[in-house]
């Protein structure tokens, strides 16, 4: 097995982002988070998302020049428009802004509309907890799973994160609304493996351990 260092991995990813047109700071932040995610063992939202992100940038689905714009403010509650900007930097902005509001009001609530994929949701719970704040973070996704007992996809498998600071480190829950996150299905499918437990139903309505079509 070939091993590479964290810095080599990060620098390679960063160069890919620079080649896609990201600014130096954007590329560095995004490369850091993608690399940390894979090194933490969350392969479903780390390096395997780099090519897709670059593809979305090239297609214009992610606006690398966009910045969050505040559209509503009510004391400890603020709402921003992400203008289809980079999901990671938008989510980091929202997290830091929520922490700032919490310092002032005791609680900080920030909503971000019109943004893009934030990659590993737990990243933002960790960021808040490391500063001594409990956090609840979530986002919506495209409709990719049916309601209980149904067949048609109508619900998003929305990520949900809870983080609590401890005397040393933090306790962070990062989960999907289904038995498997979409990214976990992708990782299993790419390995050519079956799911360890049935994760859904096939077209005939039977339980299946297939991670999905190639």
Can you describe this structure?
The chain has 214 residues and is α+β, with helices and mostly antiparallel strands. The protein has three domains: 6-59, Hypothetical Oxidoreductase Yiak, Chain: A, domain 1, CATH 1.10.1530.10; 69-176, 2-Layer Sandwich (Ribosomal Protein S8, Chain: A, domain 1), CATH 3.30.1370.60; 179-213, Hypothetical oxidoreductase yiak, domain 3 (Wheat Germ Agglutinin (Isolectin 2), domain 1), CATH 3.30.60. The protein has six helices and ten strands; from the N terminus they run H-H-H-E-E-H-E-H-E-E-E-E-E-H-E-E. The protein has helices at residues 6-19, 24-39, 50-59, 87-105, 122-129, 182-191; strands at residues 69-74, 77-81, 109-113, 135-138, 143-145, 155-156, 160-165, 170-175, 200-201, 207-208. It has a three-stranded mixed beta sheet with strand order 1-2-3, covered by helices on one side. The radius of gyration is 18 Å and the shape is globular. The protein starts with 5 loop residues before the first helix and ends in a 6-residue tail after the last strand. 32% of the residues are buried.
């Amino acid at each position: 097995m070939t091993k590479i260092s964290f810095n080599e991995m990060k620098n390679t990813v960063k160069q890919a982002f620079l080649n896609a047109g990201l600014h130096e700071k954007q590329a560095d932040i995004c490369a850091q988070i993608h690399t940390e995610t894979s090194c933490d063992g969350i392969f479903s939202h780390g390096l395997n998302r780099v090519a897709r992100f670059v593809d979305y940038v090239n297609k214009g689905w992610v606006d690398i020049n966009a910045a969050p714009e505040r559209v509503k403010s009510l004391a400890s509650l603020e709402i921003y428009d992400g203008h289809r900007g980079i999901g990671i930097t938008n989510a980091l902005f929202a997290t830091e802004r929520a922490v700032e509001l919490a310092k002032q009001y005791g609680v900080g609530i920030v909503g971000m509309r019109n943004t893009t994929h934030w990659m590993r949701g737990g990243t933002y719970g960790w960021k808040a907890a490391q500063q001594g704040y409990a956090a609840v973070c979530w986002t919506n996704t495209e409709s990719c799973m049916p309601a209980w007992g149904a067949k048609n996809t109508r619900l998003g498998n929305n990520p949900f994160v809870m983080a609590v600071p401890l005397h040393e480190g933090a306790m962070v829950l990062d989960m999907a609304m289904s038995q498997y996150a979409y990214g976990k299905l992708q990782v299993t499918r790419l390995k050519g493996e079956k799911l360890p437990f049935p994760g859904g139903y096939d077209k005939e309505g039977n339980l299946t351990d297939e991670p999905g079509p190639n």
